[in-house]
Write a structure and sequence with these properties.
The protein has 366 residues and is of the alpha+beta class. Helix content is 33%, strand content 23%. Strands 7, 8, 9, 10, 11, 12, 13, 14 and 15 form a 9-stranded mixed β-sheet that branches. A 7-stranded antiparallel β-sheet has the order 2-1-6-5-3-4-16. The radius of gyration is 21 Å and the shape is globular. The chain binds pyridoxal-5'-phosphate. The site of pyridoxal-5'-phosphate has 13 residues, from helix 9.
C-alpha cells in the first residue's frame, strides 16, 4: 500500500484516540532525561515569560507598548503602527514579510544572516512586481537601527512590506510599497513560546498539498500564500497533532506549514529540493553547517516512505530553530532528539551566540 494512504488512515485512528500530544506515555518517551537539554532550559525561560505575559494581560500591558517601530522612514510607538482595514494588503493579503532572529553575543546583539533575509525580502518584491522604497543596504541599516532603538539583547525582527492604500480592486493602486519593521521578544512580549512544551512535537501528513509553483510564485513570502500553512496546521491541530507535513502536488515530501523538514536516514541528512518549498535560510544554513561538520547531506525528491525509514526527523526555521519530531502519524521515533539533530542544534547555538569563528561573518553586530 502506498505510504500516503497509510498515513491518512493513521491520522483518523489517532483522531479517534484523541491523545494529549504532550502525554509522555503516548509519546513513548521514558523520562525527563530524554529531553533535549538546551531546548529544555530555553523552555523553562519561555514558560516563565508566558506566565508574566498572562499577568500582563490581566493588568498593565508590559513591553509591547514600549516598542518602537520603523514605519515608512520614521520611528513610531508600537500602537501607532496602523493601516486601514480597507487597505490592499489587508483585503488581498498582498503584504510581504521576513522573520529574522537576533542573538545575544559577547559583543552585544547581532542579527543572523541579515543580508540573506533582506535579499529574500527584495526577491519576494521582485516576484510580485512590487517596488521597494529602500535599497538592500538601506533596509539592512533600518533593521539594525530598529533593533538598537528597542534595546533588546535577543529576539525577533519582523520586516513587512505593504500597500496601505485603500483599495477595492484586485490590483494595488501603485507598485511602490511601504516598509515597517517590528522588534520584539516572542515570549515576553507576545506570550508565545519559542520551543515546544516538551522539547519535541508530533506531526501528521496533511491532506493539503503544498502550493504548486505553477499556480503562484511560492518562493515569495507573501501573506496570501500562508493560507496553505494555516489550513494544514488547523487540520493537524484538529487531529491531535502539533505540526503538519505537506506533500507537494507530485506526492513528494515538501515541508511543514511554516518550517523546513529534515530527516536522517543511515546517518545522512535529507531534505526536499527547492522548487516546491520556500527557499528557507535555516535550511540553507543547516546544509552548509552539516557539510562543514563532515555529515553527508542530500537535497532532492523524497518519497513519503522516507518518513517510515528515517531514524530522526526535525522541523527547522528561524523562529523554532530545530524542532525534533517524536511521532508522525502512528510512527513513534525512538531516540528524540537523535544524535544528528542534537549535534546540529548544539553547533547552531554556538554559531548564533558568536562562539564559532568559522561562521562569525553570519552575524551582523547591532
Ligand atoms: C513555508 C515555510 N517553509 C520554511 C520556512 C523556514 O524558513 P526560514 O528558515 O527562512 O525561517 C518558513 C518560515 O517562515 C516557511 O514559511
Amino acid at each position: 500500500m502506498p505510504a500516503f494512504p497509510l498515513f491518512r488512515k493513521t491520522c483518523s485512528w489517532i483522531e479517534r484516540q484523541r491523545p494529549d500530544p504532550y502525554d509522555r506515555r503516548f509519546s513513548g518517551r521514558s523520562s525527563d532525561s530524554d529531553a533535549f537539554p538546551v531546548m529544555e532550559s530555553e523552555n523553562k525561560q519561555s514558560r516563565l515569560s508566558l506566565k508574566d505575559a498572562r499577568a500582563d494581560l490581566r493588568g498593565e500591558k508590559r513591553m509591547m507598548k514600549e516598542r518602537t517601530v520603523f514605519v515608512n522612514g520614521t520611528y513610531v510607538p508600537w500602537d501607532d503602527a496602523k493601516i486601514h482595514i480597507m487597505s490592499h494588503s489587508v483585503g488581498r493579503g498582498s503584504s510581504i514579510f521576513e522573520v529574522i532572529g537576533f542573538h545575544d553575543t559577547p559583543n552585544g546583539p547581532a542579527v543572523f544572516r541579515l543580508d540573506e533575509y533582506v535579499a529574500r525580502f527584495r526577491n519576494s518584491a521582485a516576484l510580485l512586481d512590487m517596488e521597494p522604497p529602500l535599497s538592500a543596504s538601506g533596509l539592512q541599516e533600518a533593521v539594525l537601527e530598529t533593533v538598537r532603538r528597542n534595546g533588546l539583547k535577543k529576539g525577533i525582527i519582523k520586516l513587512v512590506g505593504f500597500y496601505p492604500e485603500i483599495a477595492f480592486k484586485i490590483l494595488p493602486p501603485g507598485k511602490r510599497f511601504q516598509v515597517a519593521i517590528f522588534v520584539f521578544d516572542l515570549a515576553g512580549d507576545l506570550g508565545e513560546s519559542l520551543q515546544p512544551k516538551d522539547g519535541s512535537v508530533t506531526a501528521c501528513i496533511s491532506k493539503w498539498r503544498r502550493l504548486d509553483p505553477q499556480t503562484v510564485p511560492i518562493e515569495a513570502k507573501v501573506a496570501a500564500n500562508y493560507i496553505n500553512g494555516i489550513v494544514a496546521r488547523t487540520e493537524a491541530r484538529d487531529l491531535g497533532f502539533d505540526y503538519a507535513i505537506l506533500l507537494d502536488t507530485r506526492g513528494c515530501i515538501a515541508e511543514g506549514g511554516t518550517e523546513s523538514l529534515f530527516l536522517v536516514r543511515g546517518g545522512r541528512l535529507l531534505t526536499s529540493s527547492l522548487g516546491t518549498i520556500l527557499n528557507s535560510i535555516t535550511r540553507k544554513t543547516l546544509l552548509e553547517v552539516a557539510e562543514t561538520m563532515g555529515m553527508k547531506t542530500f537535497a532532492g525528491r523524497l518519497d513519503p516512505s522516507t518518513i517510515v525509514e528515517a531514524e530522526e526527523i526535525f522541523f527547522a526555521g528561524t523562529v523554532g530553530k530545530l524542532i525534533p519530531v517524536r511521532q508522525v502519524g502512528d510512527r513513534i521515533l525512538q531516540e528524540v532528539p537523535g544524535p544528528v539533530t542534537r549535534r546540529l542544534f548544539e553547533r547552531m547555538t554556538l554559531i548564533t551566540s558568536g562562539g564559532d569563528e568559522h561562521f562569525r561573518h553570519w552575524l551582523y553586530p547591532v
